[in-house]
Amino acid sequence: MGKRVLVCGAGGFIGSHLVTRLKAEGCWVRGVDLKFPRYAPTEADDFVIGDLRQADFVRGVVDQPFDEVYQLAADMGGAGYVFTGDHDADIMHNSALINLNVLEALRRRNCKRVFYSSSACMYPQENQEDPDNPNCAEDSAYPAHPDSEYGWEKLFSERLYLAYGRNHGLSVRIARYHNIFGELGSWQDGKEKAPAAMCRKVAQCPDGGTIEVWGDGRQTRSFLHVSECLEGTLRLMRSDFTGPVNIGSDEMVTINDLIDRIARIAGKTVRRNHIPGPLGVRGRNSDNRLIAERLGWAPSLPLNNGLERTYAWISAQVAQGKKDA
Length: 325
Known about the structure:
The protein has 10 helices and 13 strands.
């Protein structure tokens, strides 16, 4: 019989992909979220709709000793959600409460192996001011100074999971995700991230037209396709390494370059109109030395390949006049 696995946040972008991957491996999967996946039916054997902020609900979901638990549920989004400051209290309250409830339920049920998805947003902002030379090595996390309350909550929750590991014998695995993108993700609901937003704008833009870009477009990022994220996550979960460790691409590009790549994929010429908007740090790139050393693995899918898949999916949504509500 396959492993019995719980995926918290299974209605979300990465979580829904993770359920599909686990099912392909022969696992029995229970998913839990506030909602079902938006764009495709869940493949979970059992999907429970409910609020992980409610301790009683979480205890009911964790009704057996699962072999693996993946905790991806969080209040999150792209720059338009995280960096405006309008959602700070919700982000910190909701995500912290979810993690407190999940860990306590796992302790009570003696579920030993849990994965927690942290974020590169917890790295100090002063290490990411130079767009050409950001420092996101895992050991650069302290002295702590994230650029958002989202990052502070992730840092707190990392320490929470590590504390439960030390004090209650949980086998904890922590990854710091760097800008995961791909098909079946938000693309126009205000929580989309840069690759999806730019794919949408290019798809909606006539050849030779103009799209709006927040800032000067010279800020740098790296973007990891969701298929590579899942591979790194499962390798970490089934290793003897706790982390935290980066899971991301080290193929760093400017936002302007990202747009140009998407335009070439679309076969369009696109002009850029740079406007004020929430930006986050000036530069960020995944430092993959530690994951290569400890897991013998690094992402191999080129950015353009992931963008081709993502643009094809988003452009089809746009062509069909679909809404991301």
